[in-house]
Amino acid sequence: MSVIINSNSPWPITAKNHYSWFSFLILFFFLFLHGQESPLAGNDAELIWTAPGDDFTWGQANRYDIRFSSVPIGSDTTNWWNYAQSIESVPYPSPAGFKDSCVIANLSIDNHIYIAIRTADETDNWSDISNIAKIPSTSCIDFTQDGAVNILDALYLLNCIYKDGPPIPNGSISDTNNSGDTNILDALFIINFCLKSGPPPDCGD
Fold this sequence. Notes:
The protein is α+β, with helices and mostly antiparallel strands.
């Protein structure tokens, strides 16, 4: 990844201005009190579902086909499926009733993402398309504008609110939890979303 620093920026490129000790102190106490889970990358998503059986809810299926698209599925499910992008690394199906999961990497945060699964038995009898999982856009809280939402965006917001850091970029929302006010809870909302599988922000349609 190439990083370009604008030398004409009105804010000096210093550790104090961008990620101050105050921001890191708040982050440390939050993680200490609530515990830290292993975070995914800022533009990765984990999909979790219950494994179907080989025959309805019995046995064990043979393989999965998982596809996603930024286009809503609509009424023509066959056409949507044919044009959706396949996920290469999918797990082997567990016995019926067990949980399966996979990570979908490098998703765009600029669009809503729609995901569906089909399952096949040992003779390649394919199921219908599953219910649709929707991953909402999170671009409105990408304050660092690096194409991913992560802990640095929470630090950026804290620095902006309490340390007179760089302003919130156009198109972003600082009131991440829709409380009507911008404060430390909005930074904690981002941390909870990134590290604790908390609710996503409302970036609109």
